[in-house]
Amino acid sequence: MPVTQILRGVSSRLASKIRLDAARVPAPRSSPPPKHKLILYDYEASPWCRLVREHLTILGLDFDVRPCPRQTLFLEGAFSNTSRFRPKAMEYFQNGAVSEDKDLTFPLLVDATNDSAVVLKESYEILQHLWQTYGETIVPSRINGNRRPDQRVNDSQIPFIFRFLSLAGPSYLRPFPTCGLLQTPSNYNNKSSLPIVLHQAEGCPESRLVREILCTLEIPYHSVSSTSAENNHPMLEIASDTTLHGAKACTDYLWESFHDTTKALPTLINPVPRSNLGRSGSFPIGAYIAFVKGSRALVPPDAMK
């Protein structure tokens, strides 16, 4: 692996502690969630994508992931046609399926439950939709008399800057290109490769290690929220004949099976793609705009019950 197992494991555990171990298990429900078909375009290292994935776990929702790792850090939103899923995500913007803003940003959620798909961007809009549509049967709950970790870490009484630093902390701890940040050469084939299902929880450190490899190699997968605090270590199902347990077994399989060793690994100084199909804004400006948009609220009130 490009980063040592020890460093990856320790930093992933610290990342979960920064989030107070939020989203380790779904919140209790009085009845199962409504039927749903959700597709999430995101990349693992994004703080706002992380927030959406946390609440998908809290709501106990399964969803399909279309990983969209960055190709460069020099231009915000820049990508080429070698990106496996960013061009498809861009279609939603070009077809006017979302707001008048044509700048492709992540996360992007497609709710394809009904015949007319709902396309949402920006974490706050996505969370509002998820809680209003799928949160009705969530039971107000406490753990050992205390509020859930996700309620504490997103408390509106905490100044926004501290909540944001907590949300972005896992990314700062793991700024490695292959930790769900940059596109890594992959020989995964959408048509011939077998479907992959990941049983996991967003707040589980071991699950994070597996998601990062799936993201950097742009491998689509179906995420199933774990329902047990003791058994939320990742389990990977490949088609119906292979099941892997634990972060090491899962990441070793994915890396050995799908990493294209004939091409160089990505670096933090990857150049801008020659044929840029995305935006051309600077990274600092893009990060600042995302910060300002997110400052209005991190989570909807319903999530704080």
Q: Summarize this, please?
A:
This protein is of the alpha+beta class. The chain is built from nine helices and twelve strands.
Features:
305 residues, alpha+beta, eight-stranded mixed sheet, two-stranded antiparallel sheet, 9 helices
Structural features, described:
The chain has about 300 residues and is an alpha+beta fold. The chain has helices at about 5-20, 45-60, 85-95, 125-135, 150-155, 160-175, 205-215, 245-260, 285-295, and strands at about 40, 65, 75, 110, 120, 140-145, 145, 195-200, 220-225, 235-240, 240-245, 280. α2 links the parallel β1 and β2. α1 (about 5-20) runs antiparallel to α6 and α2 (about 45-60) packs across α6 (about 160-175). The longest helix is centred in the N-terminal third of the chain and has 14 residues, at about 5-20.
